[in-house]
Write a structure and sequence with these properties.
This protein is 29% helix and 33% strand. It has five helices and seven strands, in the order βαααβββαβαββ.
Length: 165
């Protein structure tokens, strides 16, 4: 069956929760508290639109198998415009087929459309395959980390990619 990518709808919440929860299960200590930590999953389109962002889902046979979104970063005087990549997840059995790369290109293309000069993201320190994926695509891991003080005791690495015009 063919994979299709489309803008997310608020009604996708249940499937997004299932997808991300399955990814979290791959990493010891990662727990999912939707209502306490990521309630935006229940109304993903509305929440991203409020922040002038976009969110997409990838489907196979009406089952969501991947997702990604972005939000613009606040514009600061005399600094380049950027966007933050959010929630790139692909079902384990769908990895290695180029889907994550297609989703990432959606965000990078949207960044260029919005005249952003860079894309940044934060990734859990445990998500080593994701780090390799980003680095292969030109994202540089910075020195910054941040703690989320969540139930998973998450610490995240910072990544950034400068976009060519």
């Amino acid at each position: 069956m063919r994979v299709s990518i489309r803008p997310a709808h608020d009604s996708d919440g249940y499937q997004l929760i299932r997808l991300i929860e399955n990814v979290f299960f791959e990493y010891p200590g990662c727990v999912m508290d939707v209502d306490g930590e990521i309630p935006e999953l229940r109304h993903i389109q509305t929440e991203f639109a409020k922040k002038d962002g976009e969110f997409w889902v990838a489907e196979r046979a009406r089952r969501i198998i991947g997702c990604i979104g972005y939000t613009p970063l606040p514009k600061r005087a005399r600094t380049p415009r950027g966007i933050e990549l959010k929630k790139l997840y692909v079902e384990r059995c769908e990895r290695g087929n180029g889907l994550a790369g297609k989703l990432l290109r959606l965000v990078e293309d949207a960044a260029r459309t919005h005249e952003a000069s860079f894309v940044e993201l934060w990734s859990d320190t445990r998500f080593l395959p994701a780090h390799r994926f980003y680095e292969k695509r030109g994202y540089l891991k910075g020195d910054d980390t941040r703690e989320l003080f969540d139930q998973s005791d998450t610490v995240e690495f910072y990544f950034k990619k400068q976009l060519e015009s």
